[in-house]
Amino acid sequence: MTRITVLAVTCLIASGLSVANAQTADSQKRPHIIFVMADDMGWGQTGYRNHPVLKTPNLDLMAANGLRLERFYAGCCVCSPTRASVLTGRSPVRSGVLTHGYALRHQEKTIAQALKAAGYVTGHFGKWHLNGLRGPGVPILAEDTYGPGHFGFDEWVSVTNFFEVDPLMSRQGKFEQMEGDSSEVAMAEAIKFLEKHKDGDKPMFAVVWFGTPHAPFKALDDDKTPFGNLTADSENHYGELVAMDRSIGTLRSALREMKIADDTLFVFCSDNGGLPRIEPDTVGGLRGKKGSVYEGGLRVPAIIEWPSMIQPRISSYPACTTDLFPTVADLLGLPEDVFVKPLDGVSLTPLLADDIGPREQPIGFRFQKQGAWVDNDWKLVATHRGQRNKFELYNLKDDPHEQKDLSQAQPERLAKLQEAYQAWDTGVQASYAGDDYAAGKLTESDPEPHFWTIDPRYKKYLPEWKDRWEYRSHIQKALKN
């Protein structure tokens, strides 16, 4: 973009108009968009947050040059639901993705579908985990109707779930044996996609979902060497993050070499809070870990970099993965019918230009028997969702570690937040039942989540894969049964 265009677009963002309007006037292409997401990386696991052993020089550079979001929330405290929230802008329960291994409903509308219809070329690389399959990541089958290609991705090199060093992946249904660290493998494929299409007439949308640092942990020898004094799991866990950070640097360098960095909106985040039993701590001292609706299970590292548009700074504005689709739609001026409504996310477009006031729409969470409601500085926690008088109340500004329950001291505020949360929860339940869809109901049953080792479509591959270290124990168990 020219300097004049950047100034014009910044003014339009501040006034709530779309970037597409400014760029059309200057005959500029719309921005390329890249979403990158770690798998089980905690809020405290970056160098810029002064982690005691982990260094993340490339994420640190990205944070220093972009918008560092200190109160960014995953859409859920486990992985598949958060992935659904990224794609739809909605609470994952609305879209039928209740926990890990659930499939995204065909009746949902995704950001990839919206961008493809708007003229983008789209690609997915890495972990998918929205096709109803559990167990370590295996290549997605060409005939899988819940794979990336059925949700708007033109090209994909993907696996069903978490994946490790030297992964076996699927290139649009064709299996390929890859070599190297899993993050670098996925990123290399994404960069090939960008190089392939950078000179074309379509802007690019790439989604890179790592399998790092999800268990089982297996890092390259050089990457885990600095952590040799830790337990084996912690050593490999942090070694995987070293490689993941390096892949971020590879992407940032590639964007600059391709001369498209200034015109690329690049978002990095994690899919849920950090893991327990990893030392040093993964969540920066927050309460809770993955699977919990306390801050440590939901708050994740997040950075948005767009060199021509975003002035480097740190923001404490509460934001969420559900905001990504609405933000992109707002920037591009996409029509409202690209969404299934109601949305739970809001556009962060004004935040890209400057700090803004309090968030008008609270962020709701629902996972199994837990629930949470984040309304700026205040947070309601339900540890036994559905039961009255089982709510905790925290002021996150004064008590970021959620140590002092104010539910007894602030009964009026508790009642107000509880009423708002329960109204939202009732609406989410109606969405889950299918009320939001054009038909007013579910037109097909949700697939039952299951392990791929008992899926008839994968049966023929079990003998071939039984000696692969990442599959061995799962296949042995299936064959015994």
Give a short summary of the structure.
With 481 residues, the protein is of the alpha/beta class. It has four domains: 1-30, no CATH class; 32-353, 3-Layer(aba) Sandwich (Alkaline Phosphatase, subunit A); 363-432, Arylsulfatase, C-terminal domain; 450-480, no CATH class.
Would you give an account of this structure?
- It is a single chain.
- The protein has a ten-stranded mixed sheet with strand order 8-7-6-4-9-1-10-12-2-13, sandwiched between helices. Strands 15-16-17-18 form a four-stranded antiparallel sheet, covered by helices on one side. It has a three-stranded mixed sheet with strand order 11-3-14.
- The protein folds into four domains: 30 residues, no CATH class; 322 residues, Alkaline Phosphatase, subunit A; 70 residues, Arylsulfatase, C-terminal domain, CATH 3.30.1120; 31 residues, no CATH class.
- It contains 14 helices and 19 strands.
- A hairpin with an 8-residue loop joins strand 17 and strand 18.
- Helix 6 packs parallel to helix 8.
- With 481 residues, it is α/β, with parallel strands linked by helices.
- The N and C termini lie far apart (60 Å).
- This is Arylsulfatase.
- Its EC number is 3.1.6.1.
- It is an enzyme of class 3 (hydrolase).
- Keywords: Hydrolase, Signal.
- InterPro entries: Alkaline_phosphatase_core_sf, Sulfatase, Sulfatase_N.
According to CATH, the fold-level topology of the largest domain is Alkaline Phosphatase, subunit A
Structural class: alpha/beta
Number of helices: 14
How many DSSP E strands?
Answer: 19
CATH superfamily of the largest domain: Alkaline Phosphatase, subunit A
Helix content: 25-40%
Name of the level-1 CATH class of the largest domain:
Alpha Beta
What percent strand? 15-25%
Give the overall silhouette: globular
Chain-averaged pLDDT: 94
Number of domains: 4
CATH architecture of the largest domain: 3-Layer(aba) Sandwich
Low-confidence stretches: 1-10, 13-17, 20-27
Strand order of the largest sheet: 8-7-6-4-9-1-10-12-2-13
Largest sheet: 10 strands, mixed
GO molecular function, one term: arylsulfatase activity
Signal peptide: 1-22
InterPro entries: Alkaline_phosphatase_core_sf, Sulfatase, Sulfatase_N
Keywords: Hydrolase, Signal
